[in-house]
Amino acid sequence: MPQRLLADDVTRLPLDHEPLPAEEVVDGDPTAAVQTLGAVGGVEVGVWEMSAGTTRDTETDEVFVVLSGSGTVEFEDGERIRLAPGTAVRLHAGERTVWTVEEPLRKVWVA
Questions:
Q1: How far apart, in whole angstroms, are the C-alpha atoms of residue 80 and residue 99?
Q2: Which CATH number fits domain 19-110: 1.10.10.60, 2.60.120.10, 1.10.1660.10, 1.10.10.10?
Q3: Is this structure's pTM higher than 0.70?
């Protein structure tokens, strides 16, 4: 039988946070956690969460929807997107970003 239920409640899914690499941290002591839920049509689906702080990242092709928390993601071209519950964003592979999280940010991603 095919797996249909990926998670009972992604907003409460337990996640194990780890410190982010020091060379990526811009401000604070942010930690992050990721849980892959499964694959659909050759792409993965999962949950990611970051605690308060600021960090740099190099992105993969991804679409995500913010479930909880708040912050911003800023791109090298200067575009800045405010993140809040319900925000949907498309990231492109290789983009350099800076994530500033004010309240622990949780998102569901497809990549």
A1: 10
A2: 2.60.120.10
A3: yes
